[in-house]
Each structure stands twice: as C-alpha cells, then as structure tokens.
Amino acid sequence: MKKICLILIMASVKVCFGQLPLYKQKAASVEARVKDLVGRMTLEEKILQLNQYTLGENTNKNNIGDETKVLPPGIGSLIFFSADPVQRNLVQKKAMEQSRLGIPILFGFDVIHGFRTVYPISLAQACSWNPALVTENCSVAAKEAVLSGIDWTFSPMIDVARDPRWGRVSEGYGEDPYANAIFGVATVKGYQGNNLSNPYSIAACLKHYVGYGMSEGGRDYRYSDVSAQSLWETYLPPYEACIKAGAATVMSAFNDISGVPASANHYTLTDILKKRWGHDGFVISDWDAIEQLIYQGVAKDKKEAGLKAFLSGVEMDMRDNIYFENFKQLIAEKKIPVSLVDESVARVLRVKFRLGLFDEPYTTIMPEKDRYLQPESKALAAKLAEESVVLLKNKKNTLPLAGSIKSIAVIGPMAKDTNNLLGSWSFNGRPADVESIYKGLENEFANKLQLNYAKGSGFEGTDESGFAEAVSIANQSDVILLCLGEMKTWSGESASRSSIALPSIQEKLLVELKKTGKPIVLVLSNGRPLELARVEPLADAIVELWQPGVAGGTPLAGILSGRVNPSGKLPITFPLTTGQIPTYYNMRQSARPFDKMGDYQDIATEPLYWFGHGLSYTSFEYGTPKLSAQKINKSQELTVEVTVKNTGGVKGKEAVLWYVSDPAASISRPVKELKFFEKKEIGAGASAVFTFTINPMRDLSFPDATGKRILESGDFYVQVGNQKIKFELVD
Ligand code: BGC
Prior knowledge:
Blueprint: H1 2-19, H2 30-40, H3 43-49, E1 51-55, E2 77-80, H4 85-98, E3 106-109, H5 122-127, H6 131-146, E4 152-153, H7 177-192, E5 205-209, H8 228-235, H9 237-244, E6 249-252, E7 256-257, E8 260-261, H10 266-276, E9 282-285, H11 292-295, H12 302-312, E10 317-318, H13 322-332, H14 338-354, H15 368-371, H16 375-388, E11 390-394, E12 407-411, H17 437-445, E13 450-454, H18 467-475, E14 479-485, H19 504-514, E15 520-525, E16 541-544, H20 554-561, E17 620-622, E18 626-627, E19 631-633, E20 638-646, E21 652-661, E22 673-682, E23 687-694, H21 696-700, E24 702-703, E25 709-710, E26 714-720, E27 723-730
Parallel strand pairs: 1-2, 1-10, 2-3, 3-4, 5-6, 6-9, 12-13, 12-14, 14-15, 15-16, 19-27
Antiparallel strand pairs: 7-8, 11-16, 17-20, 18-20, 20-23, 21-22, 21-26, 24-25, 26-27
C-alpha cells in the first residue's frame, strides 16, 4: 500500500512539474525562461513591465514624486523609498499572486555610498586608490539593501567630472576616465558579486549615460557640448569597462549631448551600448527624463517624448507614466513595433531572472539590529574613510601632533556636526550613527589631551558673535583644529555653486584665529574640491576629510595622533580659484605652451593641488624605472618596474600612479593619461617593487571620433613619480 502511495505521489509531482510553465522552472536557462514568459504575455502586461513607479516617502527634493497609491500588480519596477522589507513582501505578494503570470516586481533605490552603514562619498573613495576596499564596502551596502527589500541600486555614477562647481562631482570618481572605470568596476563587483542570483547581490545601474559630467558651466541638467572625440575618449570608457564587467542596467542621463538628449539618443543607447558593446540588460530613464525631452525641445508632447525615448533604446520609464499612458496607442498606430516591445520586455525580465526574483521573490526578515551597522561593516567603512583622507599640507611636520601638545582648541561648524559628515545621497544614514570629529578626538585622546571647544561660526551667514569665544579658547590651547566645510546639501544633485570657495564667514573665522599665532590644523569636510587660495597660506596643515560617513571623525583623529598614516591622493584637481575652472591634469596639449602664454593674466597658472596630490608622514623615494625593452612592436608587451623606498621613520601606504604620454599622434593626445595604479604598504626603511605592464593596444592606442581604436608607432613616454622615460613603438 505504502509503495503504491509513493508511486502516486511521485507521479503527481512529475505531472505538476511537467505542467509548471517553463518560465517557472528554476532549472531552465534564463533565456528559455524569458522567451517562454514573453510568449505568454498580453500587450498590457508587457507595457506594465516597462514602467517604474515609486513606493514610500521620497525625500529627494529634486524629485517631487507622487506615491503610487493603487499599484497594478503587474508593474515592472518600484523605487522603494520606505526600506521596510515587510512592506516589500506585501507588495511583492500582490504581484506574485494577483498578476496573471506571477511576475515579481523589481525594487530599486539609490544606494550610493552605503545603505545604513554609510561610507565615504564616491569622490573620497577614489582618493583611497584602493578599489578592493571599495568592492568590500559595496558588498556591505548590497547586503543591507537586500535585507531592506531592495534588488537594484542606481549606482555607480561614473560620469567623468571636471567642473567642481557641479554638485554631482561628489557622486563620481573624479576627473579621470581610467579612475572612473576602475572604481566603477569595483563598485559593480561589490554590488553584484560573482553572480546576481547570490542572496546578497543587487543589480548595479551605471549612470548617467552619458556626458552628464560635462554639464555646461557646472550647472545641473544642462546641455553638454560633447564632441564625438571626447565622447569616445573621455566619457564612454568608464561605461564600456563596467558593461564588460557585467553591469546589469544603465540609466540614461538628463543632459543633451550636442543637441540630441541622452534619453533620446539612438547612437549612444542602441548603436554603442547594445549593438557595439552587446549589453543585454536594460536602460532606465533618469527620473522623468522622458518628459524632459519636451523641455529640451525635441518632443512636442509626452507621447512623442515616449516614442523617441523608446525607439532610441530606453526600455524602462522612471516615474513618468508616459510609456504606460501612450504605448497602446503608439503600437496601434504602428509607430512602435511589437517586436521592439518584446525585446525590451525580455531585457527587463532577463535582469529579474538573473537576480533570482522568480524563484525567491521575498526578502528574509531579520531584526533591524542584525541588518545594519554590523561591527565588521563599520570597520570596513572606517578603513575606507581612513584611506580616503588626503593630507593636503603639512608645514614643518605640524602633524601628527607632537607629544608636547597638551591641549587642542576644536573650533568650527563641522566640529560637533554629525549630519553633514554623511554627505549627500545618504537617505538611510542617521546622524546618530556618526561619530562627530569632536567625539573621535575624545576617544583618541582620552586623558591625554585637553579638548577646548567653540563653534565659532555657522556654515554660512554673517553672524560673527561666536568669534570671540573661539579666539579665547584658541589662546588657551597649544594648537587650533579648525573644522570647516560644506553642508551636505551643497553638493549632490541640483546643488551647483558658482564659487567653490568656503562662505566668507568661515574664511573670516580662520583669519581671526590666525591672529592668535597658534598653529592651525585645518580640517575640511566637503563634497567637491574647494577654492583655498586665501585659506591655504593661513593654515599650517590641511586635512581633507571629505564626507566620511558613519566613521565620522575617527579616521581624522587617528591621523592627528599618528595612529594612522595618511595615504589618500586626489582623484580631482583643486583649482587655485574658481576662475581657473576647468583645470584638470589630462588636458589636451595646446599651442604656445611657453611662459604663461595664453593663461589668465590675473591669477596663477597652476592649480593649488593637482590630481594625484597627497602627503604622508613618511617619505617615499622612487628609484629609476627599469624598462624591459627600449623598443617594442605592436604585439609585444613592455614591462616597467620601479622600486619605491620608504625613507622615513614610519610605515606607510603608497599609491603609485602610472601615466603614458604620446607627444605626436594623428589626434592630439592629453599631456599625460593615467593607465594603471597600485597601492602597497611599505615598512619604514623597506622597499617595494611596483610593476606596470604596457599592452600597446590597451594602453597606447586611442579612439577616433567613431570609436575605432588607432595604434600608431612612434615615441611614447611612461611616467611615474616625477620621472619620464622614453620608449619606442614600432610596427
Ligand atoms: C537622479 C538619479 C537618481 C534618480 C532616482 C534622479 O533625479 O538624477 O541619479 O538615481 O533621481 O532617485
């Protein structure tokens, strides 16, 4: 009897399995499942998959979003503002059980530099020159996001940005295409892991494709005059690298690329991204970027905007409701081919299948204390913050603070602040999780040093009433630690500034304190390079802390005490004055480069701190680079080696940046281009060998205005430290 029952059960399981539609069978391939599902869908169901709405309270002031109260169960995606996994599961249950085919919703959110364990802003991360550490931090962000009901982040931003007036410089990795590519890839790896279906992987979204960082005059959302040459040479490479690394999705930008908006640009979205690079995920528009096509002057109404965006290659409409409202008609009018709808839906579903959403649509609910801010996560965030700090100036070894220092006057609007240290795009970050600078100092110097505190001034305004107290405590202390900077709302989206100087009240506070004659250590926390022309001469040491996230003042305290040896180097140039913008290290070569010819007459030519600048408490001596050959042909590789000796008294980490320059080519090349970097810790008195292998096609070629790579023979230079060595490439 038992046996008969078993046979019956097995038979019914088999029947059930046989009846299970192919798209629901976990063992089937993603492509087979996608094809099967698309084949079963009605037009209405397909259109719904191409739309994203929002759920929860949106706190981004730039996106005045309406919460979709009545969600159709078959909706493609939601921006999930509430971060409540229970709510996600309820909404997901509706999708799974009430939509005809049980298609899961894709929950997206802006997880930009950490979720609850906020780590330094992206620009600061790049100062670490430690992409592996960035990857580790991104995996923490991914895990916290997953546990909050999120499957997909709108990150990384890999827009090469050379105008610090633009608030969004804080969100990317600086002025160099290679650095943006490497940190972009590191980020994608951290979010996605080695497989999107891993329980704690989320899908990445590369943004803002493309040329957004070129926004005219540093204003946001503006026209970008990107030549085809710069597009290929500067703005596309980070995207290409991240697509190769498997980034699941891409976001089309707000900006207009030389007359054709990025969200209606067939050339970039379809010809390059899909056809040339073979991206098989999908493109989502930026928030209401499709509707913006009307304001950008390329569509007469929403219907035309939707048509243009879709035909160009934008598969998902973020929050506009334009696809949802117009596609049925556009398809009936035969303006949109059904085959394109099918292909687009397949792209969206492919990502959902890859994420494993059909098989595991729900979030595991864990108590909040187990979800966020785990000790090892905080330790990783602190490590990244430490490596992100850049010691900009250190006159007569003001730092680390000498044993003779018995008291510090901790002054400035940033000294006890916790909110602004989080930086922009830190929606789930809480000021209460952040160690202020003052707290960090208290922990570091407990019972060793006296801390005297005065706020001195606000971040802006004209109130000087706090100056007297600040001067008074400065007079009673051995050294002044002046903590200035930007509020977090001063950078990020739609947060451009016409001047990148600190507000005058902060500069005045510094001037007053200088009169005390006490040494001044200036600590800056900001989201962009600052104009420090008047400030720099008054400070004995300057520490760029950036916006470090939850670690807050702890890494700074470690650097002040000498427990941590600073190792950050700038990924973006600090101009001397705002008027020098644009100034970046990899400018193209120009005519009459002698005797300041062509430069501004009223200001210095040199920026204050170049890309790559950053001091240490030790000194590193670069030996003479050794080349494996003086001459190579186009199919050979060249190895360059340099020995770096730590000649100081403490161990330290050195990031070695390798550049290549090509003095004579058919298309003028930048004065030098970063091609490789590596960071190593070197003990006091010890040496380390750094090696760069030059692959001619990868490192010496350049694209033309169509993206074709050209490799020309001739003389080249490899540069490391302040040395420049010639070699020859022959056919
Ligand atoms: C921003 C994007 C962001 C999106 C969703 C837009 O306004 O430009 O970077 O991902 O909003 O929040």
